[in-house]
């Protein structure tokens, strides 16, 4: 009897761990339906993946992506496909301790004034303020073009009018020595 109970408890724990792992693997919220998105319903968007709850929603975004820009960008941040590199309001350097939760993402700011401006807005207004236009504060580049590792927003250089980010201090030198060798690894925005 004890052996049976121990087996049942272990099986329950394993099942619980499996469910917890599945719940932790999030594909964000469908930008059209507002329901949890699924891995098997997606489209390419600016070189990244956007996930949906059903094929009908996928078609809506394919036809009119401009109607969903804010929600698409929010999902890219939630799924870690874009990286915050600056204040989304001013474009200034990020200051520690200014983070605010916006649309399921921890977002930093350059100063307490920008932080307060967003913090006092409604939830929908916050998402609109941060994700309607992401060019000041986020980059589509999430990997170093030299090493393939995650980027460090403080390690950067300019290339053909665009900021290129790297994982460490050694990679900008390798990139600058032969930029064409690595340029193909940069996102096509």
What would you say this structure looks like, in words?
The chain has 189 residues and is an alpha+beta fold. The chain folds into 3 domains: 30-81, no CATH class; 83-138, no CATH class; 141-183, Ribosomal Protein L24e, Chain: T (Roll), CATH 2.30.170. 38% of the residues lie in helices and 23% in strands. The protein contains 7 helices and 8 strands. A two-stranded antiparallel sheet has the order 1-2. Strands 3-6 form a two-stranded antiparallel ribbon. It has a two-stranded antiparallel sheet with strand order 4-5. Helix 3 packs across helix 5.
The dominant shape is globular
Q: Tell me what portion of residues adopts beta-strand conformation.
A: 15-25%
Q: How much is the radius of gyration in Å?
A: 20 Å
For the biggest β-sheet, the strand order reads 1-2
Give a topology summary.
Layout: H1 2-24, E1 38-45, E2 48-52, H2 55-63, H3 69-78, E3 83-84, E4 95-102, E5 105-109, H4 112-119, H5 123-131, E6 138-139, E7 152-159, E8 162-166, H6 171-177, H7 179-183
Antiparallel strand pairs: 1-2, 3-6, 4-5, 7-8
What are its keywords?
189 residues, alpha+beta, Ribosomal Protein L24e, Chain: T, 3 domains, two-stranded antiparallel ribbon, two-stranded antiparallel sheet, 7 helices
Give a quick precis of the structure.
With 189 residues, the protein is α+β, with helices and mostly antiparallel strands. The protein contains seven helices and eight strands.
């Amino acid at each position: 009897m004890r052996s049976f109970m121990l087996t049942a408890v272990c099986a329950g724990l394993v099942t619980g761990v499996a469910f917890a792992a599945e719940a932790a693997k999030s594909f964000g919220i469908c930008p059209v339906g507002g329901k949890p998105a699924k891995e098997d319903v997606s489209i390419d968007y600016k070189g990244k993946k956007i996930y949906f709850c059903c094929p009908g929603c996928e078609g809506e975004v394919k036809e009119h992506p401009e109607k969903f820009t804010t929600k698409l960008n929010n999902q890219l941040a939630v799924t870690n496909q874009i990286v915050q590199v600056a204040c989304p309001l001013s474009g200034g350097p990020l200051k520690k301790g200014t983070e605010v939760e916006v649309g399921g993402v921890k977002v930093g700011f350059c100063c307490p004034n920008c932080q307060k401006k967003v913090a006092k807005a409604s939830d929908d207004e916050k998402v609109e303020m941060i994700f309607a236009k992401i060019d000041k504060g986020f980059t589509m580049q999430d990997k170093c073009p030299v090493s393939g590792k995650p980027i460090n927003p403080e390690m950067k250089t300019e290339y053909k009018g665009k900021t290129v980010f790297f994982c460490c201090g050694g990679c900008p030198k390798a990139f600058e020595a032969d930029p064409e060798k690595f340029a193909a690894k940069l996102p096509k925005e």
